[in-house]
Each structure stands twice: as C-alpha cells, then as structure tokens.
Amino acid sequence: xxxxxxxxxxxxxxxxxxxxxxxxxxxxxxxxxxxxxxxxxxxxxxxxxxxxxxxxxxxxxxxxxxxxxxxxxxxxxxxxxxxxxxxxxxxxxxxxxxxxxxxxxxxxxxxxxxxxxxxxxxxxxxxxxxxxxxxxxxxxxxxxxxxxxxxxxxxxxxxxxxxxxxxxxxxxxxxxxxxxxxxxxxxxxxxxxxxxxxxxxxxxxxxxxxxxxxxxxxxxxxxxxxxxxxxxxxxxxxxxxxxxxxxxxxxxxxxxxxxxxxxxxxxxxxxxxxxxxxxxxxxxxxxxxxxxxxxxxxxxxxxxxxxxxxxxxxxxxxxxxxxxxxxxxxxxxxxxxxxxxxxxxxxxxxxxxxxxxxxxxxxxxxxxxxxxxxxxxxxxxxxxxxxxxxxxxxxxxxxxxxxxxxxxxxxxxxxxxxxxxxxxxxxxxxxxxxxxxxxxxxxxxxxxxxxxxxxxxxxxxxxxxxxxxxxxxxxxxxxxxxxxxxxxxxxxxxxxxxxxxxxxxxxxxxxxxxxxxxxxxxxxxxxxxxxxxxxxxxxxxxxxxxxxxxxxxxxxxxxxxxxxxxxxxxxxxxxxxxxxxxxxxxxxxxxxxxxxxxxxxxxxxxxxxxxxxxxxxxxxxxxxxxxxxxxxxxxxxxxxxxxxxxxxxxxxxxxxxxxxxxxxxxxxxxxxxxxxxxxxxxxxxxxxxxxxxxxxxxxxxxxxxxxxxxxxxxxxxxxxxxxx
Amino acid sequence: xxxxxxxxxxxxxxxxxxxxxxxxxxxxxxxxxxxxxxxxxxxxxxxxxxxxxxxxxxxxxxxxxxxxxxxxxxxxxxxxxxxxxxxxxxxxxxxxxxxxxxxxxxxxxxxxxxxxxxxxxxxxxxxxxxxxxxxxxxxxxxxxxxxxxxxxxxxxxxxxxxxxxxxxxxxxxxxxxxxxxxxxxxxxxxxxxxxxxxxxxxxxxxxxxxxxxxxxxxxxxxxxxxxxxxxxxxxxxxxxxxxxxxxxxxxxxxxxxxxxxxxxxxxxxxxxxxxxxx
Lengths: 724, 278
Prior knowledge:
heterodimer; A: Aldehyde Oxidoreductase, domain 4; Aldehyde Oxidoreductase, domain 4; 7-stranded mixed sheet; 25% strand; globular
C-alpha cells in the first residue's frame, strides 16, 4: 500500500531519461515509411521526384525481404510491405532511408504512387452491417436451455455502435536498428510493450541472414495503451531490413500525423442484443448477443480481442439462457489492434446501455434493475465458470451510496421540470479478467530471473516494460516488500531479450497480476531456500555464495481449465470488478454534455502502490469517459482524422472531478489494474444523458452533432404523433 | 525558403518592397509554422515581425484602446487596461487555444491569417474595432467589418501590414454582452461556430444590438440584417421565423470534418434566442 516514488520520476523531471528519439548511433541514418494512399488497388508505378540523387537513398520493398513477408501475429496474414496489391490506406509499400531526415521527408511527400483502384470498404457501418464481410473464426458461447421464451416476457432488440479510439501515447512509434555483421546480430532499440514479439518480428523478416535479433527498449517509453503491442513488430522488421541493406544504423520515428492515420486503433464494434425479461420478477431470462468487430484489412491479433469481447459481452448479469456469437469483419482500413480494454469496453458500452433501455421500459430505477440481475455467488458466467465472490455487487452498492445516486435522481427530476438545460445521472458496471485468456498463461510459461550481488543488491530481470504506468517501480516493490529488503538495494534491468528471460508481453493487465505476484512468491521462495531473516545480513556472512542467480516460472492454478474449441470453462482465474456513477449537465442550446462529476469504485485486490494505482485508475476513467463523450476518429464522407487538432481528446477543462476508490484491498493478491478503469465509464455518460433528456442514443460517442440529430428525430416523431 | 529579420519598421518596408512574388509576414508563427511543416508554404520568403517592439503592447490614446498587432493573447488576457475598459473582450479570450499558444500568438496574426474561425474577429466586429494599416509612406484606418473580402482575401495592399487594432474605449459601456465559442472541447479547439453579441435595452425595446459570427461564412461577419430586424422591437414582438429568414441571408454554414451544417445553423439560432431572452 506504500506510495513509494517511481524510479523514473527524477530522471524524467530532469530530462536525463532517454526516449527513443534521444538515442543516436555512429553513422546513423533516418528512415521513413512510404505507404499506400489508396484504399484498395494494384500498384502500377511509383514516381520518385526529380532532382534527388537516388544513390544516396536506401530503399526496401517486399522484393528485398530475405525471410517471410508475413508479420508473426496470432493470425499470420499481414505482410510487412505490400507486394503488388494494397488492401488499405496506410499499408506500407517501402521503407526508405537517407542521412538527412528533412530531405527524406520532402522526398517521400513528393513521391507519388499510381494505382489501378479496386472496390473498397472504408465506412464502419458498411463494413459491420453486411454479413458478407465476416471473416476468420467465429466464436460462440452457447449457454442455451433450448426452451422457447415465455410469451409474457418483454422482448428488447437493439443495435449498438462503438467507434475507433486512438491510443494517443505521448511518444509516437519509433525504432532503431543496428546491424552488426560480424556477429550477425540485429540489435534493435524499441519503444514497445513486448520485446519478445519484436524479436520474432525481426527474425521473421530477416530469415537466415541474421543469427539473432536482440531487442532492448528505450529507457523511457512514452505511453502505449496497447498501441505498442503489435505495430512495433512490423516497424522493427522494416527498420532492420533498412539497416541490413544500408549497413548503417537506421532510425524511424513516425510523424504524429502518420502515426494517427496508419497505426492500430480500438476496433469499432456493432453489437446487437436481444433480451427477454420477465415483467413480474424483473429478471432477464434470455439473451442473444451478436458481437462484431471491424478488424480492418487483416486479422492480426483481432481474434484475441474478439475472444475477450465475447467473454465480457454479458456484463455482470446472471442470465439463465444465453447465446453469444462473435465475428470479425473485413474492411479496407488499417488493421485495428490492442487498446486498453481489448474488446471489453465495446461490450460494456452496449450491454450497460441495453440494461438502461430495459429498466426504462419497465419503469424501473436502473440501479434496482441491476441489483436484481447482478451475478450472485453460485451463479455462473455463460462459459459455466462459477462466480465465487460478490465484489461486483459491493462496488455497485458503494458507488451508489457515495455518489448519493438515489437522492440526486429525485433532485434532478424536479430541477429538470423547470429548466431548459437538464441534469442527469447514470450508472455503469464492468469487470476485467486478469492475464491472458483461457490457457494463454500456461502457454506463455513466463520466467523471471533474480540476481543477488555480493553487496546484497537484488537485480530483477523481466521482459515487461515500464511505459510510464510505473510497472518497474511496482514490480520491484512487490519483491522487496515481501522480504523487507531496502528499496535502494533493488534494481530492475531494462528489458533486453538477450539478458532478461521471457516473462511475456506487457499486456492484458498481466504485469502486476501475473509477474508481480510471481516475484512476490519468488521472494518468499528465495527466503525459504536460503533460510534468512535479513538478506543483507545473510549475504554479508555468506559472501562466497554470491553473486547468485535464481530463476522461477509461472505456474497456472490447476482450476483454470478452458476449452478453447467450445468456449467452456474458466476463462480467467481472477477478475477485477468496478462500478461507476457519472453526473452530467446538458446544455440545450448547444446539445453539449458537460461532465460534472464521476465516481468509480473498483476491486483490484491488493493495492501495491496507492499513488500509482490511483493515477492509473483516474487516467483510465478519463479515457473511458472520453470514449463515450467526444473521441471519434472517422466521419462518414470525410474520412480519418489527421492529428490532435481534429481528434478531440478532452483537455483537463472538459473533465469532471474523478473520484476513485478501491475496495477489498485487504486481499492477499494484486489483481489486474491496467485495463479495468477504461472498460466501464463510457456507458455511464450515455445513461446519464438518457436520465437527463429521456432520449436513448445507441451510438458512441455522444458528440453534440449526434445528439442534435437524435433530438430532431424525437421532435419529428412527436410532431407526427400530434398530427395523427 | 528565405528568411528576413528587419531591424525596424522602416527596414521592414524596405525589405518587403524588394521581395518579388509571394511572401509571408511571420508574427507569432502559430499558424505559419504549421503550414511550413506541412509543406503548404515551401519556397516563399518569410519576414519575421515578432521582434518589432513598436507593434507590441496595449495602450490608451484619446478615446481608443490601441492594441499593437504583435500583442500576444497572453498580453491581452493580462492587460490591466483592458480589464478596466474592455472586460468582456478580455474575458472572452480566456479560453483561447492553450497557454502555450496564448503566449506566442498575436492579435494581428489571428486577424491576418484570414481563417473563418479566427477567435478574436467576432468580438472585434461587435466592438466596432478599426484596424490601423501601415505601409512605407501611409497610415490608414479601416473598420474591421470592411477588412475581409473573401476566404483569405483582405483589403490589404501589397507591402501593407496591420499595425494596430483600435477599439473605442466605451465600446462595451451600457451593453449586455454575450460570447460563445463552440468547439469539440473547451480549450485548444478550432471553433465549430462562435458568436459575439452586444445589446442595449431601453423601455423594454432593443435600442441597439450588434451580432457577429465566426466559422459560419468564408470570414467572420456582422449580422447586419438580423440586427436591423431586431432594432426597436421588444422581445415579444420578435417573430423568430422572420429572424431566421434574415439569418439565412447572412450565414452559410457548411458540413466538414469538424461539424455539420444543420447543427451549426441550429446552435446559432438557439444562441441568438437565448441572448435575446435574457
């Protein structure tokens, strides 16, 4: 629970901590990606501008690839560089390098590509509404009883849409490759989440021409949020190829506008929900969910996002008869990828909206309706995984209580009677399964290493990166607090694939939950093995035993058995739970929602570092609120946003006071924290808007233009009924 | 691309006259630098202005407040003189851009960039501001309402620059004021629309009213027809259908990446109504 200072706090403040673009190597040249400006087409010809000495440039294309032209991913279908045909805007066609960065930029911006254009799907609804665009494996969770719905049950059938979301990390994507021909080693400096994925990415493209790729991260990684999970693999591959061909170190740092337009985003979703509710008991008796994601042009890691999506699709409700179907849809847009939440925010955005729709139809208080339907101990998920704790219900009760929800519901109703502007309050809940889905952690078999030196300095070796979220501070803390070792005697090695063992990627809310708890267990194990009370004392009196290396692997709890074929069993051993209440003020003149306050109560188990955890939770909540309120990336007819001028990240002035509380923090285990804060807040904004105005909007975000058009429709309908 | 840094105002005009072809005067650079980075400005000459202290500052002269064209928004927001004399003008600019851009961007640059969304212009329009235009041999004053001729087109002659903005010191006195800028967020945003208004009520009648809008036309404009329609009416006498038909003659909202024309139009109507009903 101690809020110890982050290890990177001072070097970041004084500017000595190096981010990727701060690194330079002797003879280094600069690279840039030449990418498709066509959504789908055959490349006819590439015209380079006149007046440049082409011999000064190093260029690589698909034809130069000595290894495979397929990026290693859960589904291997995306080439590093397009060969003859491009399948989306932003698809890389060439990597080009030159000693002068500015000249290179000029050269590339004046290069034109001639295409024979082919039909393309670029619109989100065009992609997701048409079943013909489905591709890849269909996932189903079948928990049906086979009984017909009772004719008295109230039927609800709605479709919900969620948008792209941009990770908006502070530091754009970047990579440096240094070819070392003597040892046949490709050294890569990366701003990334998963050094071992990058290693695979480089080794796949380079094939037998290299002996090994060694990846080390930059000291500072300026944010990632999932955006640096898979795109770096492709970027590292092309940068390496440029370094190999030129014989020089090559650095590529994406320009912000390129980064926004061509890298992975959160998948837009179309989620269709049908429910049947017993009007007497107010219990939802049957549900049917069709969960669709716009994957983009390639599947890449989308199947894994889809898996998490369907596993969280039912939200926190116990529904005896459930069927969930998940599919990926193809479009001619850059592949969508990982983003904090990973399929879950879409699921809650739809289901938590749907719950309010039903409650409203039944003329019920949304809180009371949730309480009746919420999971109870002894219930099960649609995968048959048993519910072992009622912490979700505890989160909901606590947030209702501390936000004064019931009182405000009445107050606002009164206030709204006499005001043109409206006040509203909305609820949402969510949860997040920690670690890889199903048997994933077993397969990963993460390993950690600890070296104890002669001066009792403990060095921790893990491949998990600190991208600003404080992972290295918290990981070290979990180790030294367990054995009461001084913090200044505990170091973390910068992730390097030749030095740190593979403790898996920095994703899936697994860093503290899997690796942190493993390190804690490891500390106790070392203590038992050596039999010390005080490590410093022990090392001092047993100098000949040190330095000494220890290794340990993660062993999955035997209760985690998941049938990947049928989606039955325990998908995640531990869940983090959350509930949220958000209050809004609606401006009738301008159709704008102003967030006035938002409360979140979460159960993330043991809180290792209160300050870091609170910072993560607040940041995630605001990312979630913005997902519901203002962030959108694509406008039909106008295309994608180019930068932060158009892509409306909220400023601090747009955000309300965010109140975060952790409950059940006396738990022995630290559960996943990374993603849960992002999962649930968006629908609370939408539900608060409904509470304020009585209007349901089933598409996100709730930007004023959308609200205006719904208001118009409501007025038109009202007029029509009056004429009738 | 060639850069010039004249030592004085006089040298500025001499330098400027010598340069053939298209050239840019760079004040705070918050727009021009972006255009250079994006390759929109490539080979043209750039003349730096921002070091010319004679065009900075806010001062009073006779019955006008004079704001130097190179006064920064930060300078305007912090000016004691403006706080006393033109508080509405000053307060309306609090949420302009971001603290970083406020410090660098200048009022002259905001006007001369010619953007339809220029934040300061609707305010200057309702305050009946004038621009003092400088050239080598001549000074002249033009009302800001006559400065724009079309999208990024001005009344400025070759080698003429905006030297200062003049606002009558009592421009706000006796008026109820109104300013709304609608963007995709509260700060650091480009206006989807902006509206500024001044009104004076006497015996329940609208004795005088001034309305100006930004982002609804090729350049920010006064709504003279709407004003004319409203003058000498009580609020109860206003026929809002008629008001809208006048408004439609004066604004041409568009749909773009940032917003929709229907939304822009309706919000403009709503805001005018709210201002009139208060």
